[in-house]
Amino acid sequence: MTTQHMIDGKVVIVTGAGGGIGRDIALLMARNGAKVVINDIGASLEGEGKSAGPAQRVAEEIAALGGEATSNTDSVAEADGARHIVQNALDVFGRVDCVVNNAGILRDRFFHKMSDEEWDAVLKVHLYGTFNVSRAAAEPFKAQGSGAFIHMTSTSGLIGNLAQANYSAAKLGIAGLSKSIALDLQKFGVRSNCIAPFAWSRMISSIRIDSAEQEARVEKIRQMTPAKIAPLAVFLASDGAQDVTGQIFAVRNNEIFVMSQPRPVRSVHRSEGWTPESIAEHAIPALRSSFHSLDVSADVFSWDPV
Hints:
- By secondary structure, the protein is an alpha/beta fold.
- It has one domain (about 10-260): NAD(P)-binding Rossmann-like Domain (Rossmann fold), CATH 3.40.50.
- Helices cover about 45% and strands about 15% of the residues.
- The chain is built from eleven helices and eight strands.
- Strands 3-2-1-4-5-6-7-8 form an eight-stranded mixed sheet, with helices on both faces.
- Helix 1 (about 20-30) crosses helix 9 (about 230-235) and helix 4 (about 115-145) runs parallel beside helix 6.
- It is globular and about 70 Å long.
């Protein structure tokens, strides 16, 4: 295997790496010299079942390239499982340098029809999973004075999408969590960033197509391969990114975006204070031009990927 030395010798944990985006990130990490822990419980998209197969297959792919990898089937949704994943890296490779929090499931449902189980399951894997693995890795990162977290967020949370309240809440929560990690661990030389990926994957393939517009949107996404996400992840894991932290990036085919984060856009002031009536008469009309419309992701990313 030709090593390009971008992250030579670094140990990288990639969760949900048995297929899709996670697999492509793991493969490119290995091609760039990293030793990789391939974590995947081998479940269906809905989180059902368990199989060592997917993680083991990716580990074997990396070995066939001349790289080093180990497979792991612990669940990120449980704190003990997350600790085992990090310990796995320490036991096999002696250290850990980067965590890519990629594991995810979907339970798409309109909010008014969403069950407790559908809400809990998605929050547990995405938001709790990201916290659990990050918390477990924080100790070795802190001790060695370095480390990189790469979390997968989504424009479903950053912008909005229909029938994804659980997923959107989790993904926007991850953006907030990433910022907190970046702030709290900055003094220890640890970085934390998010990527919102546009890529055809099992998760995207489950989107219900109920209109010509939705069909056209899905067809565009089908052309965006998971491999397009991996180069940014490798860069963020490298020492070349040591001054990049607390950011939210998006990758769409050959485009890389840095996403805005909430900041005040307009204000109104009254020295005598506000009443409900003066808010109606003055504040809201003055602020209305800065209101956000009820966009979904496809409204904002309306041009064809290049």
